């Protein structure tokens, strides 16, 4: 009986030990799959793999939305591969905006470091809107997959850092999804209730055709 129990516990310990893996630094030379990147050989992993220095510099906000997102996702920071988290820097110039968008792969947590940002999201069950003006030190969470936005609501540049519950949270900006592609104008009209002139105007601004 004792020998049998010892044998069973030995098997359990062996299988659990084999399953333990401290990390899986992504090998960017290999394709990205549903489970992320394949692991870099441990013999080639160094301390530098666990350090990312790209968030100390402001992003370029001289664009249509006057905003810049500097990501430290798995493709930029392979050490987060498989760990279920990532981070990004958000710079918003005066009047800057991150338009209504969603992250299909993860929830988001934003902390304001400088300036003030009006941020909010829309629930999927009843389209209820949750929004608030955030100031330095304030934090807001945006549940996975829900439409949300951030707007610089002050008269100075704003800075925030954003963490995600995924190394690759994904991104879909609603306006670009609707008007930045080649979906025929007639179909866009019917699915958005906008008139032809407005659809064509938005397509021209956002790079769409059709």
UniProtKB/TrEMBL annotation:
GO molecular function, one term: manganese ion binding
Pfam families assigned: Cupin_1
Xref: SMART domains: Cupin_1
Residues the entry annotates as binding Mn(2+): 101, 103, 108, 148
Residues at which oxalate binds: 103, 108
Domain of life of the native organism: Eukaryota
Subcellular location: Secreted, Extracellular space, Apoplast
Keywords for this protein: Apoplast, Disulfide bond, Manganese, Metal-binding, Secreted, Signal
Cellular component terms per the entry's GO annotation: apoplast
Cysteine disulfide links: 24-39
Limits of the Cupin type-1 domain: 53-200
Keyword Plastid: no
Gene3D superfamilies linked: Jelly Rolls
PANTHER family per record: GERMIN-LIKE PROTEIN SUBFAMILY 3 MEMBER 3
Name the UniProt record assigns to this protein: Germin-like protein
Organism: Dillenia turbinata
